[in-house]
Amino acid sequence: MLTPTASAASKKKHAGKTTYSISKILKALMAKQKMSPNKRVQLDVFLKPQNQDQLTNEIYNVNTPGKTGFKQFYTPAKFRAKFGQPAKVTGQYQPYFKKYHLKSHVFSNGLIIKVSGTAKNVNKAFSTNLETAKYHNNPVQFSSKKPKMPVELADHVLTILGITSFNNQASGLAKKGHKTQGPEKKYSPSKFTNRYNLKSLYDKGYQGQGQTVGIISFAGFKKSDVTHFWKAQGVNSSANRLSVKKLASPAAQTTNTKFNQIETSVDTEQAGTVAPKANVRVYQTNFSDVGLVNAFSTAFDENKAGSLSMSWGLSEYLTHYLKDKKLLTPVYGQIMNIVMAQGALQGVSTFVASGDSGAYAGGIGGKIGPISLPNYSTYAIFPADNPWVTTTGGTTLPFTKKLAKGVKVSVDKERAWGGDYLFDAYIKGRHNMLKNLSLYSQAMAGGGGGISHLYNTPQYQEGVSGVNTFNAREYVSNLRQPRTNPVLVSGTDYGRNYPDVSANADPLTGYQVYDKAAGGWHVTGGTSFVAPQFNGAAAVMNSGKGQRMGFWNPQIYQLAQDKTKTPFTVMDSTTNNSNLYYVGQPGKLYNQATGLGTINFEKLYDNYQ
Hints:
By secondary structure, the protein is of the alpha+beta class. It folds into two domains: 4-49 and 84-166, no CATH class; 171-607, CATH 3.40.50.200. Strands 13, 14, 15, 16, 18, 24, 27 and 32 form an eight-stranded mixed beta sheet that branches. The longest helix is centred in the last third of the chain and has 19 residues, at 527-545. It is globular, with a radius of gyration of 24 Å. Keywords: Calcium, Hydrolase, Metal-binding, Protease, Serine protease, Zymogen. It comes from Lentilactobacillus raoultii. This is Protease pro-enzyme activation domain-containing protein.
C-alpha cells in the first residue's frame, strides 16, 4: 500500500479518459467564476475493469437456458473478483484522499471510489481549477486543467466523473393529468394486471412475497402519498414496506421539484400495488453523471432488490453533444454499460421506461440572430437504449371519447401509443384543441422507441425479424406540426433497438396517481407507469419461481421466435399503430413502436426458465 508521503512524492499523470479539452468551448461559456473554495464537491473515480472482454459472454452465460452458468448469478463480491479491482488496488486511494481531507468510499464492485470534500481540497488532490459558468443558459461546472493523480493511482483510472458536470435537465416522464374526486377502479393498476393476465398468478398465491422491488429516482416524495394509494387499492399499506436510500450527489443538479415528485409517487405506488406483498426500496439522488451511476451501483451493491425500474431519461442526442463539447466523459456510455452489466450478472431484472415523446427527442438547436431554431428529430432516449435493461414501451387501449364541438376520437383495438389518432380531430377542431393545451400535448405524445446510435445491436436481437429494419410515417414535422396521411417509408439502421416490451401507457386510457401536493388524485399516463408495473410483475414471478428471473432479454427474444411458447401479442400494422414515427412491420416479430408487443404474463411465467 502506498503511504501518503510516497504518493505525494510520486510523479503525477492525467487520470483516465477525460472531457478536458474544454478550452475549445471556453469562449462560449458565460458568467465564468472560480468555484467557492468551501463548496462541497462529489466525484466518482471510476477504475478500469478487469477481464472486460469477458463481460458480455458471462451475462449470456448466466441468463441463457442451456449455458453452463445458467442461473448461477453473481454476488457483488464475485463480480468484484472477476471484473473489479482488488482491495490491494483500491486500498491505495484512501490514504491519498485522506491527506487532502477528502472522504472516500469504495463500492463493493471494486470499480467506483466515491470522493467528496471542498472544492479547494479537490483542486489540490487532482491538480484542477474548478470553475462554474453558463453554457446555453445551463449551469456548468468545469476545470480547464485535466485531473492528475500519482502515476501509481492514475494507471488504474478509466475516468473521473463529476469534475465537469452539465445540468442535463433530465426529468421524470410521468405527466400531470386530469383530477378525479377519489380512487376509481377503472384507473387502478388492476387494469394492467387483468389485461395482461398477471391476475392468474395472484390466484396461484404468487404476490411478490419475500421480494424487494427497487426504484431508481431523482426526486423526493411523500411516503404518506404512497401508503394512501396502497390503502385505496386494498393492498398492504404499512409504511414498513417502503424504505428510502438517499444518496449524496452534486448539489447543482437539482431535480427535486413538485412536478418530478409525481414521478417517484407513480413508480412506488404502481410497483407496490402490482407486487402487493413485496417490499419497495427507493434509491434517491439528484440527476447527474455521478448520480445516475451511483444510484444503480448502490442498488446492485446492496443486492436486495431482485427487480429494479427507472422512469427517467434524456435525449441520446445530448450524450453525443455533451461528449463532443467536452462536457461529458467520452466513455460515459461504456461506464453505464459496465454498471448495468453488474445487475444483469447478479440476476436483477431492470426495466427502464422508453420515453413519452414517441420516436422524437429534443436537441440543442442553432440561432439566426435572435431567432432560436428547433432541433427536434428521431433521437433515442438514454439510458433506455442500454443493452442490459428491458425497455418498456407504450400502447393505447381501445376507447371512444367525445371532444369539444362533437368531434369524436375512437381507437378500436390496442395499438402503439401515438397521438396521431387525434390528428383528424385536430384538423376538424384545430382552434378548440389549441385552446386545450393538455389535449394538444397528447397529440404530440407517444411511446418512446427507435434505434440507438450509442450502443450496438445486442446478440439477443440479432437475427430477430424486424430488428434493424423499420417502417415509418413522419406524423410530425420539424416544427412539431401534425401531418395527416404521411407516406410509408422503409429502411434499415443498426444499433440497439428499443423498446423490448410494451403495455398501456396512453394518458387517455391511463391510470391514477395520488400526490397530495399536486392536488390529490389524478389520471395520467406515460411509459413511467409501465416500467414500475413490469418491475412489480417480475417480483410476482420471482416469488412463484423461488429465484430471480434474471435479465429478461436473452429469454424473451428466444420465446418470441417460438410459435408455441411466445407470450407476445405482436402489433405489426402499418396504419393506426405508430409512435408518431415508427409503425408495425407486417409479419415480423419486432418493431420500434412496440418492441416484441404486449405480454401474457401467465404464459411468460409458464415458459420462462
